[in-house]
Structure to design on (106 residues):
């Protein structure tokens, strides 16, 4: 088995979350700061594939943005490159998502 293959076989794409996903990601992901962005790396808590997610502090656009939720919380999506049956074209990952509180030093 390659390092990027899941231990229990290939899971189909399903948009799903679980409270345990956030706990697993918080315990196992590495965090690297790059000025306006944070790079999260680790294994998806659902499919167990290696993934990296970039979280940016702000997006710039012309129209006025709606009121933002608490800026410390971010929704993270599985962005693994592995194939997952039933995944819509143009998407990555297994469909798993979870919310993390990012506490980045100023």
């Amino acid at each position: 088995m390659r390092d990027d293959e899941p231990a229990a076989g290939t899971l189909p794409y399903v948009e799903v979350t679980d409270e345990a996903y956030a706990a697993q990601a918080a315990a196992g992901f590495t965090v690297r700061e790059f000025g306006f962005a944070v790079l999260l790396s680790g294994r998806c808590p659902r499919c167990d594939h290696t993934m990296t997610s970039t979280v940016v502090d702000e997006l710039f656009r012309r129209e006025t943005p709606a009121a933002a939720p608490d800026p410390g919380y971010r929704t993270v999506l599985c962005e693994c490159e592995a194939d997952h049956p039933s995944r819509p074209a143009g998407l990555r990952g297994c469909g798993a998502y979870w919310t993390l509180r990012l506490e980045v030093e100023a």
User: Anything to note?
Assistant: The two ends are 41 Å apart (CA to CA).
